[in-house]
Write a structure and sequence with these properties.
Helices cover 22% and strands 28% of the residues. It is an alpha+beta fold.
Amino acid sequence: MPPQSWNEETLNPPSTPPRKEEPSPYQVMAPPDYLTNLEGATHELPPEYPVYYFFYGTLAVAANLKRIIDLQEEPRLRKAKIIGYALAKWGDYPALINGEPGQEVSGYAYLVQCEEEAQKLAYYETNAYRVADCWVFCTDGEEPSEALGKTFMYAGDAKALLEQRFDRKLWTLQMGGKLG
């Protein structure tokens, strides 16, 4: 037996369709083919560089960073943190993995100037790490105090790291026989 709030019309609706609601003002403003007709679009994407990279291990040492991206002077590193991440050990190296909400990892931020610098950093990190977007919070009291940025996260099995399972053969393969 249906609940008392139901009536005959609810169980057997009329054959006429319901009245169409007024369109959203956003639908009125955009032409019908707005999302599919991109030919001749003049919208420019924001530039990718410069962009802050968050470092937490060997790249957080200014002398290492200078050598790796071939800078003339020591780079300016800013004290920073990211939230929602954790560090685990991958052999002798720290590896950034997803953490609990609110969990913080402290490190440093560096403003990568161009694609060439980013490629040198990725080469140094090997294929054991992948570039990931993150929100960088600078803790040095200077502006900007936060920015959308990038970091290197462990590309392997984070659960294995947490369980302290380390496979030396896999490590050698991922490192490509080179050390940082």
